[in-house]
Amino acid sequence: MNILLYILIALVIITVILALVAPKTYEVNRSIDINKSLPEVFKYLKSIKNQNDWSPWKKKDPNMNQEFIGTDGEVGFLSKWEGNKDVGTGEQEILRIVENEVIESRLRFFKPWKSQSDAYLKVEDAGNNNTKVTWGFSGKNPIPFNIFMMFFNMDKTVGKDFEEGLASLKIILEK
């Protein structure tokens, strides 16, 4: 009985230590240069519906159910989706737009697990009619979920999707 108690206490201590040292936040982003003027790129990016043409997640479930509420390209616009196990269920809301600089949105995921992230699309003049686009998101890892993040490389996993999406965006905008 004493051995079982010691094992249980050791597991609790290990869990507490892991929860204290595990990452409490995350941020993932990728960038690409697009041979198109900044205003043209920004105008295209402002429309959340355009993400259907370049988003890697739309490719993972081209038949996902979508609902749009509000005026696309304006603060308050809401895009909802319900898809297969690869894309889950969630919504994206435009929170802030700084013309020709950044579009900020909130991502709320409901399935396969509940979480929330802040996403952004930033544009910068890269000279010679080129625009640097940075796509990223950040959020918090609540305890005990943060322990899982010690063993899951979000930057590598989601970063790969961002790279794929940005490559598709570049092809579309440089046509």
Keywords for this structure?
6 helices, about 180 residues, Alpha-D-Glucose-1,6-Bisphosphate, Chain A, domain 4, seven-stranded antiparallel sheet, alpha+beta
Topology overview:
Layout: H1 2-21, E1 25-34, H2 38-46, H3 51-54, H4 56-60, E2 65-69, E3 78-82, E4 89-98, E5 102-111, E6 115-127, E7 130-140, H5 145-148, H6 154-173
Antiparallel strand pairs: 1-7, 2-3, 3-4, 4-5, 5-6, 6-7
Poorly predicted ranges? none
Mean pLDDT: 90
User: What's the CATH superfamily, by name?
Assistant: START domain
Number of H- or I-type helical stretches: 6
Specify the overall morphology.
elongated
Strand content: 35-45%
Spatial gap, N to C terminus: 71 Å
CATH architecture: 2-Layer Sandwich
- Report the CATH topology name: Alpha-D-Glucose-1,6-Bisphosphate, Chain A, domain 4
Structural class determined from secondary elements: alpha+beta
**Run of helices and strands:** HEHHHEEEEEEHH
The strands making up the biggest β-sheet line up spatially as 1-7-6-5-4-3-2
Number of strands: 7
Task: Tell me about this structure.
- The radius of gyration is 20 Å and the shape is elongated.
- The protein starts with a helix and ends with a helix.
- It has helices at 2-21, 38-46, 51-54, 56-60, 145-148, 154-173, and strands spanning 25-34, 65-69, 78-82, 89-98, 102-111, 115-127, 130-140.
- It is of the alpha+beta class.
- The chain has one domain (2-173): Alpha-D-Glucose-1,6-Bisphosphate, Chain A, domain 4, CATH 3.30.530.20.
- Helix content is 35%, strand content 37%.
- The chain has a seven-stranded antiparallel β-sheet.
- The chain contains six helices and seven strands; from the N terminus they run αβαααββββββαα.
